[in-house]
Design goal:
Blueprint (H helix, E strand, L loop, with lengths): L2 H12 L5 H8 L3 H13 L3 E13 L1 H6 L4 H9 L4 E2 L6 H9 L3 E4 L2 E4 L1 H6 L5 H11 L2 H10 L1 H9 L3 E14 L1 H7 L3 H4 L3 E2 L4 H6 L6 E2 L18 H15 L3 E2 L5 E3 H4 L31 H15 L5 H4 L2 E3 L4 H10 L9 E10 L11 E11 L4 H13 L6 E5 L4 E11 L4 E11 L1 H6 L5 E7 L4 H6 L12 H6 L7
Parallel strand pairs: 6-7, 8-11
Antiparallel strand pairs: 1-5, 2-4, 3-4, 9-10, 11-12, 12-16, 13-14, 14-15, 15-16
Helix pairs in contact: 1-3, 2-3, 5-6, 8-10, 9-10
């Protein structure tokens, strides 16, 4: 059974006795299509169709002229002034019907009007009246008039003023018990030998057995689907991760809740440095302090600060718990972890993760941001190695960077990497970089040269994701999330 037939069967079940024209309108079908569907349902024994024949009439060209006045009526009016010679009356049909109706008589070669003829003038004439009604009636009305005015109708037909035809019509439609039973079956089973889809009902009833599935039409129109996909920020972080891994780096990680020791002290950041102020750093109340564990390491770092900064270094400040302000804390931990590294090839490590700063919010600053920190530990390393590494990384993001000398507490010499953002007409800082100070590597027990850099990743998304503000990443613009072009991370 075709889908159209199923729909029609349901409609017939819900609208018993509905005429065919109602079905046509309800299903928006042409008459021929509706009739074919109904024939199929009747053939399957699913519906009863009551048919009957109707009579229709079509006025001839001659009859069209009689709608206003029959010729015998015109003759009566012509005789109203007095008898006329029979030779003067040329319409023999009018004379014949006037005589037959009793409206005129002939005598001695003359034709005169009878009393009935005088009375007929101006009165309704049955044939003319019927002819006019047939002319304006629908097929069904014509059939009714044919029955009600049988004699007059037959007389019009006999005078060849109308052409009569008979045709069959659907007089009533009703669903059969077989049709009702069919509607209780799964629709796919009603569809016959080919199944459109495998439904729960089909699985339970095993109605799929012995059935073939309809072929899949890949050209059929369908709704747009929006499959699950990564948030653009995560997609970009994966892209960055892939670039570093392809460059031979190993990804490492560390805690987000960090001690001030690893976030600041181990990196030679003085305990009175402005970046430690509450305005820049989120200090925690739970946990409030974090134990460092290695007393000798604490002693070496204390000595580094007291010698380098000529001030008082307090271990209570070093134990304060903070949300890490950069992923360089991870690098510090791994410089310490690989203090005894003595390999011929440089050890290349990178970390990617969230960091937190108490920033004033604007288009390029948020309190939570993403940071990637990298270090290369080895011998015979120079600033040239670092510059090459950074240019290679940013080139894979499509950025032509500018590198200039700069100062950061934990590197010497230090560099700043920037790129020009045309939309904002501004040089945007990407990262600080340099060679880790010898004071730091000595305090962490590592005798190798350590190259380090720490790019913020969020600002790189301006160029990669074509956004104008970091806040767009969190605006949940569903249309953009659904339709944006993916970065194509391998």
């Amino acid at each position: 059974m075709e889908g159209r037939d199923i729909t029609m069967l349901k409609y017939i079940a819900a609208h018993s006795g509905a005429p065919l024209d109602e079905l046509e309108q309800a299903m928006k079908l042409q008459k021929a299509d509706a009739q074919r569907a109904l024939d199929r349902l009747e053939h399957e024994g699913l519906v009863n169709v009551e048919r009957r024949r109707i009579v229709t009439a079509k006025l001839t060209e001659e009859a069209q002229r009689y709608v206003s006045q029959f010729p015998e009526e015109a003759l009566c009016r012509a005789l109203l002034s007095g008898p006329k010679k029979a030779s003067e009356i040329h319409d023999s049909i009018a004379l014949g019907w006037a005589v037959k109706n009793g409206w005129a008589r002939t005598a001695n070669g003359a034709v005169e009007l009878t009393r009935a003829g005088k009375g007929a003038i101006g009165r309704p004439y049955g044939l003319r009246e019927l002819l006019a009604r047939l002319n304006d009636a629908t097929e069904g009305e014509q059939d009714r008039l044919a029955k009600e005015r049988r004699d007059a109708f037959d007389l019009l037909a006999k005078r060849k003023l109308i052409t009569v035809s008979e045709s069959g019509i659907v007089a009533g439609i009703s669903i059969t018990p077989a049709g009702e039973a069919s509607l209780k079956r799964p629709e796919s089973a009603m569809a016959g030998g080919e199944l459109g889809q495998l439904t729960k009902e089909l699985l339970l009833s095993k109605g799929w057995k012995g059935k073939a599935f309809k072929s899949y039409d890949v050209n059929a129109p369908s709704d747009t689907l929006y499959p699950a996909r990564l948030h653009p920020m995560h997609e970009f972080l994966d892209k960055v991760r892939r670039i570093w891994l392809d460059m031979g780096f190993t990804e490492v990680d560390g805690p987000i809740i960090e001690s001030s020791f690893w976030n600041f002290d181990a990196l030679f950041s003085p305990q009175d440095h402005p970046t430690r102020e509450m305005q820049d750093t989120f200090y925690l109340s739970n946990p409030k302090v974090i134990d460092i564990g290695d007393a000798e390491l604490m002693a070496r770092v204390k000595a580094m600060h007291e010698k380098g900064w000529k001030g008082v270094w307090e271990d209570t400040i070093a134990r304060q718990a903070v949300l890490r302000t950069h992923a360089t804390s991870v690098s510090a931990r791994h410089i310490y972890k690989y203090a005894k590294y003595d390999g011929d090839d440089p050890l290349k490590l990178v970390s990617i993760g969230r960091v937190f700063r108490n920033e004033s919010i604007d288009y390029k600053h948020l309190a939570e941001l993403h940071h990637s920190d990298g270090i290369i530990i080895g011998k015979r390393l120079s600033l040239a190695n670092l510059i090459h590494t950074l240019k290679e990384f940013y080139a894979q993001l499509g950025l032509d960077v500018r590198i200039k000398p700069s100062y950061f507490p934990f590197v010497e010499p230090g560099m700043e990497v920037t790129y020009y953002n045309e939309e904002h007409g501004d040089w945007i800082e990407l990262c600080g970089a340099g060679v880790i100070r010898k004071e730091i590597t000595d305090a962490l027990g590592n005798k190798n040269t350590v190259l380090a850099w720490g790019p913020g990743l969020d600002r790189l998304m301006f160029n990669e994701l074509k956004i104008g503000s970091l806040t767009e990443l969190y605006s949940n613009d569903v249309d953009w999330l659904r339709t944006r072009k993916e970065l194509g991370v391998r």
